[in-house]
Amino acid sequence: MKALNVVAAFLGGLALGAAAGVLFAPEKGEDTRSKIAELLRKKGIRLNREEMDDLVDQIASEVKDAE
Hints:
It comes from Phocaeicola coprocola DSM 17136. It holds the Pfam family YtxH. The relative contact order is 0.13. The chain is globular, with a radius of gyration of 13 Å. The protein is 81% helix and 0% strand. α1 (2-23) packs across α3. It contains three helices and no strands. The protein has one domain. The mean pLDDT is 77. With 67 residues, it is mostly helical.
């Protein structure tokens, strides 16, 4: 059970780090949103613009809280 927790923590940190890297990259917000949308589409997840904006805001909030 402890090994499972370590793996879950690692994967969570990996996802958070990737999100932070995308959000703080020196690109325009529109370009970043397009990249996130494309990644999600490849995974079979489709979001409208409002849902995408909410997702980006959630990720940004999580990144700020983690600092």
